């Protein structure tokens, strides 16, 4: 575990009371399940389930897959739900805008599946954007909760430019780059920059 990941785990444990309060409100307003998990590709191509607080209404995945037009928009939007379709609950919208929904990914860090900083974990179809050499490089590091792509525009940046950001991090990652990305992440979250939601 990287030193920065160790610090993240300590902060997570220290903030457990706040997390429990957030969980209570989610369960009270949204009901079960508390978490949303989705299969992603991790380091060395190993699949894992990435956790988030549930921000969407139930069965959204099936709704998207069963609607050919909506599913095409989802693919064309770099595997993100298009803005024209609002699947979020009221509390879910707040969690997304504040990035609180990402907190459960600390569990992925504790399990050794993710890091605090790294490329965003991708779904199976996204790996097709990379050639064989790029795949090896991308999957040589653990995916992260935040990363070089997120602090450089995220939702404003599409493939293949996004790919270049992710590969830059995989090739140049270091303690100092991680620290810089963390500081930039704090800034954009406090600024409420919609490009990273």
How many helix segments? 9
Average the pLDDT over all residues and give the rounded result.
84
Helix content: 40-55%
> Structural class of the secondary elements?
mainly alpha
Please tell me the total number of domains. Answer: 1
How would you write the strand order of the largest sheet?
A: 1-2
Span between termini:
26 Å
Q: Which shape, going by the Cα principal axes?
A: globular
Per DSSP E runs of 2 or more residues, the count of β-strands stands at 4
Topology:
Blueprint: H1 3-14, H2 16-30, E1 35-41, E2 47-53, H3 60-65, H4 68-76, H5 90-98, H6 105-110, E3 115-117, H7 132-138, E4 144-146, H8 161-172, H9 175-190
Parallel strand pairs: 3-4
Antiparallel strand pairs: 1-2
Structure characteristics:
197 residues; mainly alpha; two-stranded antiparallel ribbon; two-stranded parallel ribbon; 9 helices; 4 strands; globular
């Amino acid at each position: 575990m990287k030193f920065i990941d160790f610090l993240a785990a300590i902060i997570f444990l220290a903030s457990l009371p706040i997390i429990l309060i957030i969980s209570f409100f989610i369960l009270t307003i949204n009901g079960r399940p508390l978490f949303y998990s989705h299969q992603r590709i991790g380091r060395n191509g190993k699949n894992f389930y990435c956790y988030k607080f549930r921000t969407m209404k139930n069965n959204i995945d099936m709704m998207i897959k069963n609607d050919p037009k909506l599913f095409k928009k989802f693919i064309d939007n770099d595997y993100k739900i298009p803005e024209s379709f609002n699947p979020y609950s009221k509390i879910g919208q707040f969690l997304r805008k504040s990035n609180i929904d990402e907190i459960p990914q600390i569990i992925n860090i504790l399990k050794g599946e993710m890091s605090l900083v790294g490329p965003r974990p991708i779904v199976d179809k996204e790996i097709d954007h990379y050639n064989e050499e790029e795949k090896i490089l991308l999957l040589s590091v653990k995916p992260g909760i935040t990363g070089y792509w997120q602090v450089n525009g995220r939702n404003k940046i599409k493939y293949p430019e996004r790919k270049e950001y992710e590969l830059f991090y995989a090739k140049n990652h270091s303690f100092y780059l991680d620290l810089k990305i963390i500081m930039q992440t704090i800034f954009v979250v406090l600024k409420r920059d919609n490009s990273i939601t």
